[in-house]
Write a structure and sequence with these properties.
The protein is α+β, with helices and mostly antiparallel strands. It is built from six helices and ten strands, in the order H-H-H-H-E-E-H-E-E-E-E-E-E-E-E-H. Helix 2 packs across helix 3.
Length: 226
């Protein structure tokens, strides 16, 4: 197993989605590759840190409010016809937790976890669910969310729109937004998520990487779940 394949398999391994043969290959690779072992340990630390955070229970209705107010950055008209495609699947590929303070947007997360989330990997033309969890300490009546996608990446069905914006209310605690994202070409870049409310603004950057399905199958033939 090569490093690229091993790194792509880390999330599935932690989620117990790999078959025994693939697990054996992955563990053998970890035993001989310090760099990939370090990435695996970092992912474990990230998940443990997220589990230890004092997040409140998710608030209902945030996803639907987002859908009702969704519009491209260049057009103020809602894209209500796309709402059905946004409803979350039972299995989420990756979760990005964003915790912000009311006054200065100080995060409860360690700096590495708040601003530099480990890269999210995609196979070209294979959609993947990405969950954004906005955690706020009290109710917010009006907030603006803005997503700027790198070239070649976007929300499935809206790939031509590099900028999407929403105006919405935020409930106290966790506000969940699930994006069915897809990569249409091989490459990498940054997804920039910006939240604005109360006269303050903060952006979070997430690395996105993609490579072809055929490239992955040529490496070891293992199936990937995203």
């Amino acid at each position: 197993m090569k490093c690229l394949t091993a790194q792509r398999q880390i999330e599935d391994y932690l989620d117990q989605l790999l078959d025994r043969a693939t697990i054996e290959l992955l563990l053998e690779h970890f035993a001989n590759c310090q760099a990939c072992t370090q990435l695996y340990e970092q992912e474990q630390e990230l998940r443990q840190a997220l589990r230890n955070l004092p997040f409140e229970q998710p608030q209902a209705g945030f996803q639907q409010r987002i859908l009702n107010g969704l519009h491209p950055g260049s057009d103020s008209s809602p894209l209500l016809s796309y709402a059905a495609g946004f409803i979350s699947a039972a299995i989420i590929g990756v979760a990005i937790w964003i915790s912000v303070g009311m006054n200065n947007f100080d995060s409860n997360l360690p700096n590495r976890f708040a601003a530099d989330v480990a890269a999210v990997h995609f196979d070209v033309n294979r959609p993947r669910q990405v969950r954004l969890v906005f955690n706020v300490p009290e109710e917010v009546q009006t907030a603006s969310l803005k997503m700027v996608f790198p070239t070649g990446f976007g929300v499935e069905g809206l790939e031509s729109e590099r900028i999407l914006e929403w105006d919405t209310a935020l409930s106290k605690g966790e506000n969940h937004l699930v994006l069915p994202m897809v990569a249409r070409q091989i490459g990498e870049g940054e997804l920039v998520a910006t939240i604005t409310y109360g006269g303050a603004q903060k952006s979070f950057r997430v690395n996105l990487k993609s490579n072809s399905d055929s490239d992955m199958s040529q490496i070891d033939g293992a199936s990937l779940t995203g």
